Amino acid sequence: MWYYHKSQLPEPFFFNHYIEVENSPGFSFDLLYLENKSAKTKLNWIEIPELPNVQIWPNPAVNTYTHQTQGAMRVEIMDFDLVQPEFPENGPLVIHRVVAHFDDNSSKEMEIGEIQVHPADPKPGEAPLQGSSWGSSSEKAGYTRFKFTKDARLTGITSAYLPQLSDRLNVILDAASIRNLEQKEINFSSQGIYSGVPLEKVPFPLSFKSGEWATVTYQLDLPDSAGPVAKTDVYRFLLYMELETDQGVSSKERIFVDFAPYLTNREVADFVKDRRSGL
User: Fold this and answer.
1) In angstroms, how far is CA 12 from the centroid of its own chain?
2) Which CATH architecture has domain 2-120?
């Protein structure tokens, strides 16, 4: 009985999320949570009051463990003809809590980490490049390769989460004009090694001719000091390539940084122990 009690979460918990989306139909993300298999009341659905234009699809059994079940709430931004969110004058809409509804008709606010929602750009410029290949790996890494379709300048690569995740997010850029600079490697077990210049050392702006290529590669690498809760962090945010043509037309090209943890029973047990430590 003592062992069973120690293996139980005091309540359901949402993982810590780093979400960044645009308020445009088709953008979606998952909010992952963990709850006890034997819980008397189960999480049924969620509500995000700040986002009246979303549809939410519950999936209560994404993964099953010895004593817990991992579920997900899929959140999708729907049509523009629905009631729209109210955005602050400067910056994105930032959300840290959702309203969780349980199958006994009770409800409560729950922390989910952070969701940043940007207003949709009413007149997005056409980017002077196109993606030709992309991929991701179990090493929390991904890459996107682009071919420029017009002469243009890359003036920067930005994200709302670059400063916050500086201890774990590595971004490198590969382009012919900067291969003489100090390089860093990111290893893809199944696709080889990608090299490029660390983002903080890229001498922006960079000029590209039509037909030239660039590759952006990222890797999330938790510090050795990361605890069991950090190992459950969920990432789905945007890197923006900021571009400008010779005619002065500005645009942004999106790159998704997307990773959700696939936990072992041991990692779930460590998470439960950490969540119970304050009891």
Assistant:
1) 22
2) Sandwich (2.60)
